Amino acid sequence: STETRATALASQIDALLEGSHGAGKVNLVAHSMGGLDARYLVGALGYGDRVASVTTISSPHHGSAVADVALRLLPEPADDLISDLATIWSTTFNTMEEDADVRAALTSLSTEEMRRFNAEVEDDPRVYYQSWAGVSSVLGLNNAKDESACEGLLLRHPGQSDVMNKLLLPMAAILAPGLSLTPNDGMSTVESAKWGVFQGCIPADHYDEIGQIAHDAPDPHTGFDHVRFYRNLAMDLAKRGY
Which of 34, 91, 186, 221 is deepest in the core (most CB within 10 A)? Predict the structure, then answer.
């Protein structure tokens, strides 16, 4: 759940600041669910005095239809088995000792839960909030709705849309049902990713945004380079005084 992950994040920040030789605050740059954890850390756990800024990348601040559908399809008797499998799978990427709880994670991302979350977890006025969204499409076909959804701020080679990873296509079909062509990155819609100062869209699916899967080089089609993006993001925060 968001609460459990935010508590783990709080411990990491405490340890980081304790050994930082004088730094009093951190800047949080969070992808996907991490953006909700960051907001909970600041708004509910009271870390506004230790966090200078929260930058979210494709975080579903207004919920995800993917989570809504998954919760309806996930049979409660199978919760333990599915969570055990998720725990085994996640050890490939991290060393978290806690058991995974898939239903709690999906619930945190659901549309209904995010309505409650947004009503109860308030932004801290001492913290700068900004957001980016990812946008991608099946076969890299240009979507006329991208420009308006991204408010004219789309960092890509002109007219070159990102080709979505095929593993994300089933989720994209849920986010953009029928002929709606709702701009999304395969896990979150552009509109759901907006929070605080919206900075625009990057031409990337939910994996590309963090250099996955095995996406180590700049995309030759769109020009997106995740390493350069995060480096520029950090430099911009520093320039702003955060």
Answer: 186
What is the mean pLDDT of each successive set of 10 residues along the chain, which is 242 residues long? 93 90 91 96 97 97 90 67 46 56 82 95 98 90 84 73 90 87 93 96 94 85 91 96 94
Nearest to 67 by CA among 139, 10, 2: 2
Place of tokens 């411990």: 11
Give the three-state DSSP class for 215: coil
Which amino acid would we find at residue 136? Answer: S
Backbone angles phi, psi at 151, to 5 degrees: 55, 35
What backbone phi and psi angles, to 5 degrees, belong to 206?
-65, -25
Whether 67 contacts 109, CB under 8 Å: yes
Task: Answer left, alpha or beta for residue 22, where phi above 0 means left and psi between -120 and 50 means alpha.
Answer: left
Distance between CA atoms of residues 124 and 173, nearest Å:
35
Residues 6+ apart with CB under 8 A from 197: 128, 129, 130, 131
Backbone phi and psi for residue 136, each to the nearest 5 degrees, phi listed first: -145, 175
Token digits of residue 85 = 């499998």
Measured CA angle at 205 (ends 72, 188), to 5 deg: 35
Nearest residue to 174 via CA among 188, 190, 158, 164: 188
Rounded CA separation 108/5 (Å) = 11
pTM of the model: 0.88
Q: How far apart are CA 41 and CA 57, in angstroms?
A: 17
Place of tokens 């955060």: 242
